Amino acid sequence: MSLWAIGAVKSLLVLVFVLQLSAFLLWIERKGSALIQNRIGANRANIFGVVPFNLGFLNTLVADPIKMFTKEDFIPAGCDRFLHALAPFMALFPALITFAAIPFGDSIVLGGETVELRVVDLDVGLLYILAMVSMGVYGAVIAGWASNNRWALLGSIRGSAQMISYELAMGLALVSVVLSYGTLDMQDMVHAQGRTVLGFLPAWGVFFQPVAFIIIFVAGMAESKRVPFDIPEAESELIAGYFTEYSGGKQASFMLADFAEVVVVAGLVTTLFFGGWQFPWLAADGFHLPLMGTIEVSALVVTLLQLMAFSLKVLFFCWLQILVRWTVPRFRYDQLMDLGWKGMLPIALANVVFTAALILARGEGS
Question: Taking the model in full, what pTM does it have?
Answer without folding.
Answer: 0.91
